[in-house]
Amino acid sequence: MNTFDNIKSEGTKEKIQKSLMYLLKRKNFNEIYVKDICKVACINRSSFYSHYEDINDLMIQTEKGLSKSIEKIFSNMPFFDENCFVKMFTFIKENADFYKAYLTNHNGSFMAETDFNNFKQKLQKNNSAKLMCSEKELPYHLAFFSAGLSAICKVWFSNGMKETPEELAKIIQNEYKNKTIFFK
Question: Where in 38-144 does DSSP place strands (E)?
Fold first, then answer.
């Protein structure tokens, strides 16, 4: 495939993902079909299927792209810095329609497995982390933490997202106030 075809392919994938986001603002995930995506994206079904197996694959691939953004938020700031969580919850709020559907229909977390593993490897090199728990315990702690973030967001969504990202960051800080040294 030449460079033009690669660019064209990426453009089609972006159109498909944007169409999904558009439709998630108007319909429940279970009411969205490939034909709806194709109509909004102005593509034919074969173009959709050349990029995705089905709607579930589209959701998973979209989440992988979004999880890279969340991984970058954690990678570019000190672990457990309050601003880190403000940025994360702001990002989630900006993509709330997607995350509501994803967390409801896929029991997902906010990091794809590869991004979660990258984050875990970075944390394993952190000296404070080594003092707080063993390398063997770290994956369990991170799995617990990731599931907790997902659960907090589900509650936030079901309550109409009344709290600001700043308020949610404070909730996380209060929840982990005795453990935050672990992440610095």
Answer: none
